[in-house]
Design a protein that fits this description.
The chain has 353 residues and is α/β, with parallel strands linked by helices. It contains 9 helices and 13 strands. It has a 6-stranded mixed β-sheet, with helices on both faces. A 5-stranded mixed barrel has the order 1-2-3-5-4. Strands 6-7 form a two-stranded antiparallel sheet.
Length: 353
C-alpha cells in the first residue's frame, strides 16, 4: 500500500468537480496558456491561445505572461502544465480555472507525505555528469529511474568533455552507459562549454521537446543552458577548490523556451525540485523499472522472495554478473536504492503514527 496520502473524494464529489470543470471549459472566455514559472501559491502563465470571447477594451496577445493564482479545488501544478485561466483586468491578475490533461508528470513525495509535481508534459530528462566533480553513478541511476517511472525519455550528457583525457575512470563510466543506452533506447552525448563540442548535437536533439535537466551540482547544467539559451541568464557558480563540489544555483522552477513566441518549439524546465527526489514511496518492483537489464530478468531468480544480495542462492542478477552480461555496480546500485526506500518508508510510518 502506498504511503502517499491523497484526498479521498466520494463519487458524487468527483462527478461534481468534473461537471464544474466542463462548465468552465465551455464558457468561451478563458485564456489558454502554459505555466512557465512557479512561485508557491502564484504562477506565471504564458498565453498560447486567445479566448473565443474577448471583453471590449481588453488587450491580449499570444506570448503575454500573466501572474495567476489557482482555483482552490485544482491539484498542485508545475511548470509545463497546460491551463485555462480567467482574467481580472482591474487587478491585472489571472485565476487558473482548468488544468489540462498531462502527457507526462515528474512528481515526488514532499515533507508532508503528499505527492508534489516537479514538471509536467516533459519529453526528455537530460542527466548531466562530468569528470569533475566525480560522477555519482548511483545518482545517475536514480535519475534513470525517475525517467522510466515518469514515461520520460532519458538522455545522458557527459559535460566538460575537454577534461576527459585526465579521467580514465569517467571514460569507462561513459562507455558503460553508452552500451546500456544502445541496448535500452537512450542516447548519451559528450559536450563542453569550453570547446563548444557536442553543443550543436545536443541542441538538435532537444529542439521541439520540453526537457528537464538533472545532475550533481557543479557539473555545468546552468552553463549548458546558457549556451543553448543565451537569453536564459542562468546564474553559475565556480566549483569550490577545497571541496571539489559544486554549489546549487537554481532556486525557482522556470520554463525557458527556445522561442518565447511559440512554446511548441520546446524549451528547458530548470527546477531545484528534481535534486530532492525521494524514493521512499516506491516498491522494489517500482525501483527495478529504472534498471532495464534487471527488469528483463525479473522473476528468473530461484526463489520468489529473492533479496538479490550477492550471496543469495540462485539470484538471476548475480548469475548475469558472473556471466559478464550486466554490471556488478548496477545490481549494487539497485540494492542501495531499495534499502534507502525501505529505511525512509519506515521513518515515514513512525512519523505519521
Amino acid at each position: 500500500m502506498s504511503l502517499i496520502r491523497r484526498r479521498k473524494l466520494t463519487k458524487n464529489q468527483t462527478r461534481q468537480i468534473q461537471k464544474n470543470q466542463d462548465k468552465i471549459i465551455d464558457d468561451g472566455t478563458l485564456v489558454g496558456g502554459v505555466i512557465v514559472s512557479h512561485f508557491g501559491r502564484q504562477l506565471d502563465v504564458q498565453i498560447t491561445e486567445l479566448p473565443q470571447i474577448i471583453e471590449e477594451g481588453v488587450s491580449l496577445a499570444v506570448g503575454d505572461i500573466w501572474r495567476c493564482h489557482a482555483r482552490t479545488n485544482l491539484p498542485m501544478m508545475a511548470s509545463g502544465d497546460g491551463v485555462k485561466f480567467s482574467i481580472d483586468t482591474t487587478a491585472n491578475l489571472g485565476r487558473i480555472e482548468v488544468l489540462s490533461n498531462r502527457r507526462t508528470l515528474i512528481a515526488r513525495p514532499d515533507r508532508y507525505n503528499k505527492v508534489k509535481p516537479i514538471a509536467a508534459n516533459v519529453d526528455t530528462l537530460a542527466i548531466v555528469f562530468s569528470p569533475l566533480p566525480k560522477p555519482a553513478t548511483n545518482l545517475i541511476d536514480r535519475y534513470l529511474l525517475i525517467a522510466r517511472l515518469s514515461g520520460v525519455q532519458p538522455l545522458l550528457v557527459l559535460n566538460k568533455a575537454d577534461l576527459l583525457a585526465d579521467f580514465a575512470d569517467v571514460e569507462k563510466i561513459y562507455e558503460e552507459y553508452q552500451l546500456l543506452g544502445s541496448k535500452y533506447g537512450f542516447e548519451i552525448i559528450k559536450t563542453s562549454s569550453v570547446t563548444l563540442g557536442g553543443l550543436s548535437e545536443l541542441n538538435a536533439y532537444l529542439q521541439g521537446k520540453l526537457t528537464i535537466f538533472a545532475g550533481q551540482s557543479g557539473v555545468g547544467k546552468s552553463s549548458l543552458i546558457n549556451q543553448l539559451l543565451p537569453n536564459a541568464n542562468q546564474s553559475t557558480n565556480i566549483i569550490s577548490v577545497g571541496s571539489r563540489l559544486g554549489q546549487h544555483t537554481t532556486t525557482t522552477s522556470r520554463l525557458l523556451a527556445f522561442d518565447d513566441s511559440e512554446l511548441s518549439k520546446g524549451g528547458i524546465i530548470d527546477t531545484p525540485g528534481i535534486r530532492e527526489y525521494g524514493i521512499w514511496h516506491l516498491s522494489d518492483n517500482d525501483i527495478m523499472v529504472g534498471f532495464d537489464e534487471l527488469y528483463e530478468r525479473r522473476g528468473q531468480c530461484q526463489f520468489r522472495d529473492c533479496n538479490h544480495a550477492q550471496n543469495a542462492k540462485g539470484c538471476a542478477f548475480w548469475q548475469a554478473v558472473l556471466a559478464g552480461e550486466i554490471l556488478e555496480r548496477r545490481v549494487e546500485s539497485f540494492n542501495e536504492l531499495v534499502k534507502e526506500a525501505k529505511m525512509n518508508a519506515s521513518s515515514a510510518r513512525n512519523q505519521f503514527k
